[in-house]
Write a structure and sequence with these properties.
The protein has 389 residues and is α/β, with parallel strands linked by helices. The chain has helices at 20-27, 47-52, 61-65, 107-115, 137-156, 183-194, 208-214, 242-256, 279-283, 330-347, 363-368, and strands at residues 2-5, 32-36, 56-58, 70-75, 96-100, 119-122, 164-166, 169-171, 175-179, 198-202, 218-219, 261-264, 290-293, 310-312, 318-320, 349-350, 355-356, 371-372, 375-376.
Amino acid sequence: MRLAVLKERRPGEARVAATPETVKKLSALGLTIAVEAGAGAGSSIPDADYAAAGAEIAPDAASALAGAGIVFKVQAPLGTGEGELDELALIPRGALLIGTLGAYGNEERTRTYASLGIDACSMELLPRITRAQSMDVLSSQANLAGYRAVLEGANAYGRGFPMMMTAAGTVPPAGVFVLGAGVAGLQAIATARRLGAKVSATDVRPAAKEEIKSLGAAFIGVESEETAAAQTSGGYAKEMSEDFKRRQAELLAETVKKQDLIICTALTMGRAAPKLLTAEHVASMKPGSVIVDIAADAGGNCALTVPGEKTVTANGVTILGYRNWPGRIPVASSALYARNLMTFLTAFWDKDAKRPNLKPEDEIIQGVALTRGGAVVHPAFAPKPAAAA
């Protein structure tokens, strides 16, 4: 069976879905690996390294996809009118497409996969269970995003992070406040602490307080009966009540005005990012302060975030609303993402038939499979039955 690894064509995407390391391991399954020329350039992987690992270097996407039974992507393939090339039109009918396909908010794209006979698995929908941890693309990428966010925030901040005592005087440590203590937030806390900042954080989930404190940061948050049940079975924060939001906003109002750097990481699966920082919050911050909004792809946690842009407010607060934070550290994020995909495929590989066996009854497959055999099969996106008259 042929596995095609395509070059990413969506704006700002420097990652790649396979590395020479994973090419070797995938080849050991009996697969023929075709890598489109230049696919690894953004992640500092030359074509020669893929060739040395046993991959065929295809001159273009059409050549890589010719006869392919499996397609690895980072982001969803381009469709008609989306860019320089209609990648979907080149994928053979019956092929298995695996990537972070952005299923929520792109339901028409899922229907297109079905109409083209592509069996699509969207890896961001992976259930957060123990058996799936090594395949969890959201966790591996969020971890690096949290790290990168602190570095970029430190670069934009005009002072140092640690307390520095010099003959000319003492420089106090930077105050860093992290909104959301999921994988990205916890890594942001750890990174800011390593740089010497004074760190605090907040999250509505009940386990977050101890996780935050275990990393040496102070917990800031409203605690109530509602927060005790504020986490979904998948590990995401639930949408909170208006009363909670009001009380949290009052606490935030007193907290944010004291901060030098705020890292926003709060996300809710399948919904726009919650707006945690208002324009009034930003106006209360000190000139020279920095807000780094990792949630910008989902609209941002800050009301003044412009997704994809760096902006400076009238009172001198810099807001970094860059998209695709994992793509800003592509060498490391590609290495982890490629291992996630390799682990997923290996887990469902039939050694005798030398092909994937995605059992529909498996919990992991039920979570990630969008389409199968020309139909939309994921319950969140499948057509709803007509109501009885």
